[in-house]
């Protein structure tokens, strides 16, 4: 089958393209801004890429057009497909129908931690010799790629996103996956551009639970009010609550190690480079999910001791003049707060400089803006960047919203002035955390260069 993928350079659709190619299909695709690293990864697999969405691409005559959710009505190629009455489907629906059928799907959902937990779970299964297939929204160094598929292997780990499927299918992507093992890490309000309130997101999670078979397993935290409401609406599979003293829970040893317990029994100790209670929770969920497919906890614990994290999740980008620079995907007040709290537990009284680009649709709209001052409380200095014009322009004023931080906060609207301000403020021993769910105009590299050029 020849598939032509619209929006192929997105993380999900690019991963789907790699899976389709591995499954033996001919794959071509198009997008705006076809550039590395995704373009390189795709072209290395023999996937032809076309810049833009020109209607002349109908001449490729694929068997099926696969539509990413970046495509909307008015897109010239999409309009041509509709006018010609040609067959099309969404990425998640194609994946569910052509790849996930016959696979034991292990889905990881929730507002936070999906990529990290999915990567932990895939890494555990990999170390256990299970040879998992996977599609994840990030790259863990040991796994090397974000997507992998071999039809002979029947475990499939997938990051289960609650964002909508396509312009013609407003259900969450994850309703197409039909998992047998489902981790629901947490649930709070997000995606203000498509969901009116938390109740609307809870309904989508309820729809997900309706697809888990009786022989399946649903894993949730013990104390999450929104997920408790979702479970209360109906759960037909076995349900395991974690982070509860009489069941699965963790006990912190120090900033970078913790014990894994089931009731009063200590099963082992995870010692790694990751920090924060949130990563302990992610690890515990992955351990329980792996056990559901035959991996004993001792094997999972040993695997996690060699897990080195995920790119863009507190990823160390460099150290210059004893100033450490991290890249983190945090794009929600809860994620920001947990990231900074984890770093604070590790570094003690050393200074934290938080550099924030509120870039997600929810953050740009200002829906979460009032929560930012408290989320940034652990930072000694805060630098907030926001464009005044264009697609990424903020709908609120950082100087006003973050005014309660006083002299600890600076607002900037130009990358060069932002980098210069951080360079002037940074001191040896500082930890700079750059938080954005976008490329942030390459600020990480620019800042490292500026710090290296600073006088000693």
Could you give the count of β-strands?
Answer: 23
**Uncertain runs:** none
Helix vs. strand class: alpha/beta
CATH architecture of the largest domain: 3-Layer(aba) Sandwich
Number of helices: 15
CATH topology of the largest domain: UDP-N-acetylmuramoyl-L-alanine:D-glutamate ligase
* Mean of pLDDT: 89
- The value of Rg in angstroms is 22 Å
- Percent of residues in beta strands: 15-25%
- Quaternary status: single chain
Strand order within the widest beta sheet: 8-7-9-6-12-13-14
CATH class of the largest domain: Alpha Beta
Give the overall shape. globular
CATH level 4 superfamily of the largest domain: Mur-like, catalytic domain
Q: What is the number of domains? A: 3
Terminal CA distance: 60 Å
Report the helical percentage: 25-40%
Largest sheet: 7 strands, mixed
Tell me the layout of helices and strands.
Layout: E1 2-6, H1 11-22, E2 26-31, H2 38-44, E3 48-51, E4 64-67, H3 76-84, E5 88-90, H4 91-98, E6 104-109, H5 114-127, E7 133-135, E8 147-148, E9 155-159, E10 164-166, E11 169-172, E12 181-184, H6 198-209, E13 217-221, H7 225-232, E14 238-242, E15 248-254, E16 257-262, E17 265-271, H8 277-292, H9 297-304, E18 315-320, E19 323-328, H10 333-347, E20 352-356, H11 361-365, H12 372-375, E21 381-385, H13 398-401, E22 409-412, H14 415-425, E23 431-435, H15 443-453
Parallel strand pairs: 1-2, 1-4, 2-3, 4-5, 6-9, 6-12, 7-9, 12-13, 13-14, 19-23, 20-21, 20-23, 21-22
Antiparallel strand pairs: 7-8, 10-11, 15-16, 16-17, 18-19
């Amino acid at each position: 089958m020849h598939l032509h993928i619209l929006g192929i350079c997105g993380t999900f659709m690019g991963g789907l393209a790699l899976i389709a190619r591995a499954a033996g299909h001919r794959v071509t695709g198009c997008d705006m801004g076809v550039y590395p690293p995704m373009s390189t990864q795709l072209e290395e697999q023999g996937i032809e890429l076309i810049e833009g969405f020109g209607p002349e691409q109908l001449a490729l005559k694929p068997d099926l057009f696969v539509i990413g959710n970046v495509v909307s009505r008015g897109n010239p190629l999409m309009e041509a497909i509709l006018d010609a009455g040609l067959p099309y489907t969404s990425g998640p629906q194609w994946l569910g129908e052509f790849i996930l059928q016959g696979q034991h799907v292990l889905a990881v959902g929730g507002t936070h931690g999906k990529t990290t937990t999915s990567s932990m779970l895939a890494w555990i299964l990999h170390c256990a010799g299970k040879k998992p297939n996977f599609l994840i929204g990030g790259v863990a160094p040991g796994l090397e790629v974000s997507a992998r598929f071999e039809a002979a292997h029947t475990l499939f780990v997938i990051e289960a996103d609650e964002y909508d499927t396509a312009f013609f299918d407003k259900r969450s992507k994850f309703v197409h996956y039909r998992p047998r093992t489902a981790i629901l890490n947490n649930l709070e309000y997000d995606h203000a551009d498509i969901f009116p309130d938390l109740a609307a997101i809870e309904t989508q999670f309820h729809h997900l639970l309706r697809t888990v078979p009786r022989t399946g397993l649903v894993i949730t935290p013990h104390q999450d009010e929104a997920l408790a409401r979702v479970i209360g609406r109906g759960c037909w599979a076995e349900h395991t609550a974690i982070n509860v003293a009489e069941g699965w829970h963790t006990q912190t040893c120090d900033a970078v190690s913790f014990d894994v317990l089931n009731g009063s029994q200590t099963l082992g100790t995870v010692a790694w480079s990751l920090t924060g209670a949130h990563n302990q929770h992610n690890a515990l969920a992955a351990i329980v999910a792996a056990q559901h497919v035959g991996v004993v906890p001792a094997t999972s614990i040993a695997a996690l001791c060699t897990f080195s994290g995920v790119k863009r999740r507190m990823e160390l980008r460099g150290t210059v003049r004893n100033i450490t620079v991290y890249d983190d995907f945090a794009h929600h007040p809860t994620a920001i707060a947990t990231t900074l709290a984890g770093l604070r537990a590790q570094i003690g009284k050393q200074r934290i400089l938080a550099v924030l680009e509120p870039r997600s649709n929810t953050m740009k709209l200002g829906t979460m803006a009032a929560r930012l001052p408290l989320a940034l409380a652990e930072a000694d200095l805060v630098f907030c960047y926001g464009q005044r014009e264009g697609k990424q322009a903020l709908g609120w004023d950082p100087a006003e919203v973050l005014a309660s931080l006083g002299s600890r906060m600076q607002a900037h609207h130009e990358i060069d002035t932002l980098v210069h301000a951080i360079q002037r403020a940074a001191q040896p021993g500082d930890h700079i955390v750059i938080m954005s769910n976008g490329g942030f105009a390459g600020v990480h590299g620019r800042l490292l260069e500026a710090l290296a050029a600073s006088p000693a």
